[in-house]
Amino acid sequence: MKLTNQQLNHFETEGYLVVEDVIDPITVLDPLVKEYEGVLNNFANELFGKGEIKDLYQDLDFSERLTQIYIDSGKVHNQYFDFSLPQTGIKYDTPMWHGPAVFNVLTCPQLLDVVESVIGSEIYCNPVQHVRFKPPEQYAPLNEDGSVQFGATKWHQDNGVVNEDADETDMLTVWVPVWDASEEDGCLHLVPKSHKDGLNIHCPIEGTVAMPDDVFKKQDAISIPMKRGSVLLMHRLTCHGSLPNLSKRIRWSLDLRYNPIGQSSGRLAFPGFNAKSSINPDTVLKNPVIWDSMWKDARKKLAAQEDPDYNRWSSDHPACA
Ligand SMILES: O=C(O)CCC(=O)C(=O)O
């Protein structure tokens, strides 16, 4: 699906665009759910074996089972399912998941056609990418300070969470709801036109970064409820975050990024790949097993070295006080 001029104008002026019916739920998203059911089952067995959960909860549906496992173990274990590595503390056995059904979403031809409309035909799949199982706040385990683990995502620009080498990279964020994401579920919210105001300061906070409230027009924020199958495109400078999950169900999404081949990813220690190319089609990665091994190699390397620094602002900057 190619974007129309009207859609492209909307993206350029507003800094975001929702495109409906891009990813086929039956052939692309259902297999992803099935694959993660297997991952969750393995995880349940592992935790049960270690005595960290009281039951395998096999009779519950995916959302209830994962939520119950989070409650029992007192922890949100998103890293077990994620198809990226954490920014710090990587070990040889840091869990992650790079299965074929995830790869099929990242390389879904209909999705890549939409991406091509914005950044051109030479598409690199940027390794800054995540699955997010955001638990319902009413059941979510708490951090030591009483805040909800894996709650609302703080305000940021995606350019602010990568290194300076990607400041000129035409990085496009693609947010994919695996299930419908309403306001109650904790969908994204964003500030239209904020991509025109440049890169803001991001302060290190609770293992992540966030923009102070007074550096962007938070009062102009709108929420973006979305249907399964649709995608949200965001400019790398669009200010955004997500709402708390006030529903009873996990909010399940993938956030992906793409940039033109040859431009820097902003996370050079992590492996990306060529997802589409008219000029050099032979360089396109088609094999999910190779993708998986690229991540395992990166993990091995990173476990043996000091953590790279992904944050360019320090917490003692006056704007962060
Ligand atoms: O899914 C979320 O809650 C946040 C996603 C996000 O902020 C991002 O993709 O940059």
Provide a count of the helices: 7
CATH homologous superfamily caption: q2cbj1_9rhob like domain
Gyration radius, rounded: 19 Å
Task: Predict the CATH topology.
Answer: Jelly Rolls
Quick overview:
By secondary structure, the protein is α+β, with helices and mostly antiparallel strands. It has helices at 5-14, 25-49, 62-73, 78-81, 100-106, 109-119, 288-303; strands at 16-19, 123-134, 172-177, 188-190, 203-205, 208-210, 222-224, 231-235, 240-242, 251-260, 273-276.
Notes on the structure:
The chain is α+β, with helices and mostly antiparallel strands and 321 residues long. The chain has one domain (5-305, 316-320): Jelly Rolls. 26% of the residues lie in helices and 17% in strands. The protein has a six-stranded antiparallel sheet, covered by helices on one side. The protein has a three-stranded antiparallel sheet with strand order 7-4-9, with no helix packed on it. The chain has a two-stranded antiparallel sheet with strand order 5-6. Strand 5 and strand 6 form a beta hairpin. The longest helix has 25 residues, at 25-49. It starts with a helix and ends in an 18-residue tail after the last helix. 2-oxoglutaric acid binds at residues 132, 153, 158, 173, 175, 240, 242, 253, 255.
